[in-house]
């Protein structure tokens, strides 16, 4: 089936640890996005990429890093600099990043131990 | 800065009643507006996308209207069913935005009681 796969579904981070969230899509979409969702709130954009080997900061990029070495993959690293990482993280993609519909993965819940 | 507001934050209706969900935005220079559905602990599913030149979009029991001049969109769900229970989010894209940088509202949590 075509779609976006996020893993793991649940992730726990220890103090001072970096963790990486995986996002893979087989939709042949050019654009990919990472959003953070806090309880009862809307989504906030962390990073986005419109093409391989290129990405831009979103509204809340501090404490996060990304890479886009392959079209189908857009991993997000939550670094130790992110002091409040507990949230639900959602990855999305769209065909060309030109304001089409977004397709979302099923999310990763990150919690701090 | 674009702000998107959804009121009420939560809504409970008996099965069969029509649902009316509201979304307001402060900057009327939008490119499009999208409505999404989110089930607990899941990702978002796109329901309807309205281009700025359109007044409404329909899909089955769902109808979304757009009034740019007043900065409002309304999602109507006819003859609600328990399976419609979910959180509904709206999101807008500004005309000058690079890429698909949506600004989301906080969502309306809907419960349809059997």
Structural summary, described in words:
The complex is a heterodimer of chains A (113) and B (114). Chain A is mainly β and 113 residues long. In chain A, 0% of the residues lie in helices and 50% in strands. Chain A is built from no helices and 11 strands. In chain A, the strands form 2 sheets. In chain A, strands 2, 4, 5, 6, 9, 10 and 11 form a 7-stranded mixed sheet that branches. A 4-stranded antiparallel sheet of chain A has the order 1-3-8-7, with no helix packed on it. Chain A is globular and about 35 Å long. Chain A starts with a strand and ends with a strand. Chain B has 114 residues and is mostly beta strands. In chain B, strands 2, 4, 5, 9, 10 and 11 form a 6-stranded mixed sheet that branches. In chain B, strands 1-3-8-7-6 form a 5-stranded antiparallel sheet, with no helix packed on it. The radius of gyration of chain B is 14 Å and the shape is globular. The relative contact order of chain B is 0.34. The chains are: A mainly beta (113), B mainly beta (114).
Strand tally of chain B is 11
Content of β-strand of chain A: over 45%
DSSP helix fraction of chain A: under 10%
Sketch the major β-sheet of chain B. 6 strands, mixed
- Which percent range fits the helix content of chain B? under 10%
C-alpha end-to-end distance of chain A: 35 Å
Write down the Rg of chain A.
13 Å
Number of strands of chain A: 11
Q: Which helices and strands appear, and what pairs or packs with what?
A:
The complex is a heterodimer of chains A (about 110) and B (about 110).
Chain A: E1 4-7, E2 10-13, E3 19-25, E4 31-37, E5 43-51, E6 54-57, E7 64-66, E8 76-78, E9 87-94, E10 103-104, E11 108-112
Parallel strand pairs in A: 2-11
Antiparallel strand pairs in A: 1-3, 3-8, 4-5, 4-9, 5-6, 7-8, 9-10, 9-11
Chain B: E1 4-5, E2 10-14, E3 19-25, E4 30-38, E5 44-51, E6 56-59, E7 62-67, E8 72-77, E9 86-94, E10 103-104, E11 108-113
């Amino acid at each position: 089936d075509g779609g976006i796969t996020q893993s793991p579904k649940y992730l726990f981070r220890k103090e001072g640890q970096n963790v990486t969230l995986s996002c893979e899509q087989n939709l042949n979409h050019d654009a990919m996005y990472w959003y953070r969702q806090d309880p009862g709130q809307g989504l906030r954009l962390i990073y986005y990429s419109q093409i391989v080997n290129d990405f831009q900061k979103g509204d809340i990029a501090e404490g996060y890093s990304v890479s886009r070495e392959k079209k189908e993959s857009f991993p997000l690293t939550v670094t130790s600099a992110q002091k409040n990482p507990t949230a639900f993280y959602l990855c999305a993609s769209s065909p060309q990043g030109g304001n089409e519909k977004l397709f979302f993965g099923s999310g990763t819940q990150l919690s701090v131990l | 800065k674009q702000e998107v507001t959804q009121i009420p934050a939560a809504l409970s209706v008996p099965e069969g009643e029509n649902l009316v969900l509201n979304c307001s935005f402060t900057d009327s220079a939008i490119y499009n507006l999208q409505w999404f559905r989110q089930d607990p602990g899941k990702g978002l599913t796109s329901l309807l996308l309205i281009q700025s030149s359109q007044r409404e979009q329909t899909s089955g029991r769902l109808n979304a209207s757009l009034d740019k001049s007043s900065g409002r969109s309304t999602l109507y769900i006819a003859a609600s069913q328990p399976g419609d229970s979910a959180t509904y989010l709206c999101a807008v894209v500004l005309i000058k935005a690079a890429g698909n940088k949506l600004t989301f509202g906080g969502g309306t949590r809907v419960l349809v009681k059997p």
